[in-house]
Specification:
Blueprint lengths: L1 H27 L12 E7 L4 E7 L2 E7 L3 E8 L1 E6 L2 E6 L3 E4 L5 E5 L5 E8 L7 E3 L2
Antiparallel strand pairs: 1-2, 2-9, 3-8, 3-10, 4-7, 4-9, 5-6, 5-8
């Protein structure tokens, strides 16, 4: 019985390390934004049925839109932007964390010399079907 437990533990630990290594590997791929003609670039990081994590490079802007079924957190990693959230407009910069409740109109324009780099975390899983463009 002890042997089976040790083997199970070793298997679970090796699987855990493999998942952690994959996570680190994915994050290291994020150095190249992959812009083409000034368009925005994004890379899906991790998804399951409850949440989606996406790295987004915003070269110029994200037009006004809302999500009918998703709440979103946006963490600014680099750059500065002018964000519209509902009826408010304010400046965002590195280390700012913005919460966007579901069904709330939002948009952002890059105002820095470098692209705005953000981590977007949406819950539940984002499949794009509930995104409503408002402009």
């Amino acid at each position: 019985m002890k042997t089976a437990l040790v083997i199970s533990y070793v298997f679970i630990m090796s699987l855990s390390l493999e998942i952690k290594a994959q996570s680190i590997k994915n994050l290291r791929l994020l150095q190249n934004p992959g812009f083409t003609d000034g368009k925005n670039s994004s890379q899906n990081l991790f998804n399951d049925t409850l949440v989606s994590s996406t790295l987004i490079y915003i070269s110029k802007e994200v037009k006004l839109h809302k999500h009918l079924e998703h709440a979103e957190h946006v963490l600014v990693l680099e750059g500065e932007g002018e964000m519209r959230l509902g009826t408010e407009v304010f400046t965002i910069k590195k280390d700012d964390l913005i919460f966007i409740p579901k069904n709330t109109p939002h948009a952002v324009k890059t105002i820095s010399a470098i692209p705005l780099k953000v981590l977007s975390i949406q819950a539940p899983l984002f499949d794009g079907k509930d995104r409503v463009v408002l402009e």
